[in-house]
Amino acid sequence: MKDVHLIATDYPSRMKEILDEAWKILKAQFVYKRNDIDKESPFQLQFASIIKNVGELYSIKPSEQFFVGMETKCKDIKEGGKPKYVDITCGFRTGSKSEFSCAIELKFKTRQQSAQDIGRINVYQDLESLEKVCRKGGYDSGKFYMITDSRMYTALGKGEVADQFMIYDGYTTQGNTTHIHDEPKWKNNKYCKVELKNQYRFEWEHSERYEGDNNVSNWYFLEIDITK
Question: Which of 7, 52, 171, 215 is deepest in the core (most CB within 10 A)?
Fold first, then answer.
């Protein structure tokens, strides 16, 4: 007789399974147009809802609670002199005790926005923020997710920003590196410095989406893990 097959009981493994399943569901609903995501706010709302629903199913002990929050304030982390807010937070707790938590940042970028250089910088800034939140903000892990229809993000780019803030498919950053952008012509982001402690690999996924009248759009999806 075989032992019964159950889901993982340890919190890190369960969190991974929850987020893996939620991400697959979000992508499938997006590709088959069940959900209407056209900017970052509906991405945040719908993904948080899916995470909440899956997380509830993975709560197996009577005393466990799975929580999901949006725009959660991290009072110990400052960005531009202001408190850091995390797009989505989730985790398990027992009573008032946090058992395991995860901070999540999202990006939804389209070709119409056109400012891919700023988009690349924003990705690195989110990774840096998640590292800080995991080291200093009390979160056990972090996740970064991105959806775009712009091939420019997934392909090898040209120029100063593309060289300093590479996110093309297959690229791996080096650990303990500083990335600097200084462009006086820019109205925003004239100067920024991003310091990444960990190493990250950019592995994009691709899917076509049927838009009607024989039109097909191409979409790209990115998921990155952040650890302490």
Answer: 52
Nearest to 123 by CA among 141, 108, 101, 102: 108
Q: Which domain holds residue 108?
A: 11-155+201-226
In this predicted model, what pLDDT tens digit does every residue of 136-181 receive, in sequence order? 888 999 999 999 999 999 998 887 777 889 999 999 999 999 888 7
What digits encode the pLDDT tens for the residues 123-146? 999 999 999 999 988 899 999 999
Q: Which of 120, 133, 39, 127 is nearest to 78 (CA)?
A: 133
In a domain, 169, yes or no: no
**Number of separate domains in the chain:** 1
Whole-number Å distance between alpha carbons of 225 and 49: 20
Whether residue 163 is contained in a domain is answered as no
Residue ranges of alpha helices (H) inside the chain are 11-31, 40-57, 116-136, 151-154, 160-164
Domain membership flag for residue 85: yes
